[in-house]
Amino acid sequence: xxxxxxxxxxxxxxxxxxxxxxxxxxxxxxxxxxxxxxxxxxxxxxxxxxxxxxxxxxxxxxxxxxxxxxxxxxxxxxxxxxxxxxxxxxxxxxxxxxxxxxxxxxxxxxxxxxxxxxxxxxxxxxxxxxxxxxxxxxxxxxxxxxxxxxxxxxxxxxxxxxxxxxxxxxxxxxxxxxxxxxxxxxxxxxxxxxxxxxxxxxxxxxxxxxxxxxxxxxxxxxxxxxxxxxxxxxxxxxxxxxxxxxxxxxxxxxxxxxxxxxxxxxxxxxxxxxxxxxxxxxxxxxxxxxxxxxxxxxxxxxxxxxxxxxxxxxxxxxxxxxxxxxxxxxxxxxxxxxxxxxxxxxxxxxxxxxxxxxxxxxxxxxxxxxxxxxxxxxxxxxxxxxxxxxxxxxxxxxxxxxxxxxxxxxxxxxxxxxxxxxxxxxxxxxxxxxxxxxxxxxxxxxxxxxxxxxxxxxxxxxxxxxxxxxxxxxxxxxxxxxxxxxxxxxxxxxxxxxxxxxxxxxxxxxxxxxxxxxxxxxxxxxxxxxxxxxxxxxxxxxxxxxxxxxxxxxxxxxxxxxxxxxxxxxxxxxxxxxxxxxxxxxxxxxxxxxxxxxxxxxxxxxxxxxxxxxxxxxxxxxxxxxxxxxxxxxxxxxxxxxxxxxxxxxxxxxxxxxxxxxxxxxxxxxxxxxxxxx
Amino acid sequence: xxxxxxxxxxxxxxxxxxxxxxxxxxxxxxxxxxxxxxxxxxxxxxxxxxxxxxxxxxxxxxxxxxxxxxxxxxxxxxxxxxxxxxxxxxxxxxxxxxxxxxxxxxxxxxxxxxxxxxxxxxxxxxxxxxxxxxxxxxxxxxxxxxxxxxxxxxxxxxxxxxxxxxxxxxxxxxxxxxxxxxxxxxxxxxxxxxxxxxxxxxxxxxxxxxxxxxxxxxxxxxxxxxxxxxxxxxxxxxxxxxxxxxxxxxxxxxxxxxxxxxxxxxxxxxxxxxxxxxxxxxxxxxxxxxxxxxxxxxxxxxxxxxxxxxxxxxxxxxxxxxxxxxxxxxxxxxxxxxxxxxxxxxxxxxxxxxxxxxxxxxxxxxxxxxxxxxxxxxxxxxxxxxxxxxxxxxxxxxxxxxxxxxxxxxxxxxxxxxxxxxxxxxxxxxxxxxxxxxxxxxxxxxxxxxxxxxxxxxxxxxxxxxxxxxxxxxxxxxxxxxxxxxxxxxxxxxxxxxxxxxxxxxxxxxxxxxxxxxxxxxxxxxxxxxxxxxxxxxxxxxxxxxxxxxxxxxxxxxx
Lengths: 678, 559
Hints:
heterodimer, A: alpha+beta, Rossmann fold, Dna Ligase, domain 1, 6-stranded mixed β-sheet, 16 helices, 27% strand, B: alpha+beta, 2 domains, 5-stranded antiparallel β-sheet
């Protein structure tokens, strides 16, 4: 019997869920995010949920503190000590430009040039010393950066992935003249070749470390002040959690943890619902995130780029984001084409319906105009919006130039938006060798279930899964996610000359290290799971494919065969003439946390009522449509479209021809059909 | 106009066509072996009209210089291949048949639907080698195309899905590092096959006639959008020019004279007055010349779509009798990488006079091709290392130029030092920002780079095709020019060598301990340097961007 709190701080709202197996209940709170100090919002959410904080067994926290600091460049003042001749690596990047066309882009490095100092030292590619480390220069550089007021220090040397001796020694020297808990040596974060990517990943770590540490300390203070005595766990971008003491050393791991927690909640919910393969579709106010879970395992990538020229090469749940959300603006371009997004009306002025001065029609306005959203129940709005004014505006701005009525114009906005989002789903599935028809679409976020049906029909995805609480999925992800540590080691040798003993040793060492760290986290239960993968390529290629590795005892032949299979599935190309290269060996060590009963999320049943309103559907035009409270659909109930299912945090559109069934843990399983003959 | 399709269907089909191209891009790039394709993204995928090869859609990640060439290449294939069959793939790299240089190898796949030819799918990929007198194909001294490599006319490399072993054998017997090419060939053909599948699904979904009508209408709308954009440019005649350092053989600059006439919603580009055809490899084939103008316009107006309609209001007078209209057997290896960027620079210079608030000072505008070929005695193998480099972009009305941006015609990533040192017997002594190279201005140019690479083992030969060695990229509206490209050989025995043509050189022998030092151009400055805000100058000083001597002199400060 456990009581677990999951709490996710998003851009707009801080969501909290308390799962209590003792009293067999779940409590939920949604409060505005407190931007300046996120911990106030977290404490407010605990208050609002009326949680007895002393009786809670664990709090798992997803924070955007590091992601926001990074994207807004509100970073700790960080100095760099690096190899002589190479201090500009972080500024030069891989020589690209922000967009293919237009020559006026800008880029600001994470560490400015005046704080990047060089010291004589150089290893070659085999780790041999070309220039010995100049220890006096390291001492002087550390003192200089300390005196310049740096809070954090990064030490990043060429080829340190091959032999970290110089980085280690430099760190010792720096600490001797500048005792400082915020010193990052590049190889500690990532033992992978490519100096820009490793350097940026480590620079991200160094420059968010103090921010994360201060934030978590404040939060923990607040919690302790209220009598909380247990561990605080923190969500990572890899979809696993880790103790708040351990996370600061690897602060970079918290970047992009928000989308990861949503995917983890989907994985857990899908497994419980007997649907282990899912495409996750999270649509909010400004963007939508699409991820993929195959047989219960979320796809993880080591090579994501957070924004232009900011590669963060630690394992992260692979989520594809596009700029389409409720606030995305519809407009007509000079060629007379209708465009929707990526520009967003944001929170201010917001969509027209917010009544804060917005005049440009958005996706939310189109949903409202067509009766799909309930004008009396918009979360972000005080008072009811003027529907007729919104319809007139859509008619004027979009309808008139296209020669369409306002209804057709609003429908066109939704159609174009759905099509763009379907494109994003296609990119994470079809274009990576997965057939979307083998998956269910897991729809969440405030706007996900409004659009998921149309997207599923477009791509031939047979079913939707709408969880019990779509608006707090990220918080649920925190509550249910396992502990997780990831490891990457570079081998980079032709497979036929790799020492398979080394493979076995590397993978077993990774497992041992992971288990040791899990023991330090101290909050796991149950049997530790390990996942091994290898990053491979044909010799001569530069891109990598992730290949599943069954166990540390894998044979050369098994690896070769597994690589060929993955390659064929992705490209339909076989190249028997060319040898395979084993680049990285990866291990994820996962400590399961208590398996919570998701049935706790069910609301107390409520009566259905007989409310209806006119709603516009592509299939049938305006249709008098039943409005069904989500709580009136207990397990086992069936509902045929057309229908609108409403709940506090989202609205589900069931088009004509769709059929929804409520399963035992409160999910709606929607069979979308083809939409033809409805 | 025919009966208009509803705007939603039109938008959805446009998006669908674009996605077919993007998926081809992704598959080609991820499966390729050539680092020039996989990392430098030197490739492009698109859909072209069945009747005349006109551009229907092109991938978002395609190399800009191919935006205009591929339709001419497709047209040449349509004229020469009599009986295209389903699952055929035609190969061609002839520069004079709608191409660039020999290294850009094009694949064309006829797309059949309901048994009829509906359109063509095509892609271009830069192969690391196609034979010729220097590894990599960038000879600075070739005087006829035969010296530059194997020239393949349009022939079927795959017949109904089967690879033709005889054609393959001819190709493999004539190029270097032939064993890996089979990987690129398969990747390039597989990308087109993926495109075929996705496009068929799009036609299944919306119907052949509807998609055909949408393609026609998208073209009309693109033309309308381009015309509306041109209409905002004041009518008039505007002149700009740019200079290629030399052709590599004769040490004299080559001039591009660009006269742009804006008349209502059309723009005419006349290059009369440009230098005559040259002996060395800096001639440009007409497809590349046109494409350079198109990509320059797209840089100035990034929001215009990419299809044949966009080009309709852009009238280009064929520059016959100049080096921008190369005919067989003029050598052309420098056209895609260098001359194209000078043509774009001339377009920018001319348009700065019409719409200064939308323009920018000249970018570095060189691909900085540097090739080192030799034998590594420790590994017992020959190698060819390519380094391509960025430079500074020009200042612009809203800010300073980008430092180390990629070439005007590329979207490529440079290779990590840690990767280069792994494959080749070299040691980089420096890879840094070229201090002082940003042209002074109210908004200064971005900085080029300065690298020093030392040979560690074995004998090697160094060649380079770069540009802007004679003068730096142009500043505008009173801004100073960016720093020029510089190359120095510092031999272990103390000799120093600067190439006679400054930016172009071939076959310099280098031995262990010898160092090659390269500084790439910085961007031009925008506006009067005296107007630069004092705090920006102080920031430049703090960051050491103008070296020990600081920014005072270039920005005209006297104290």
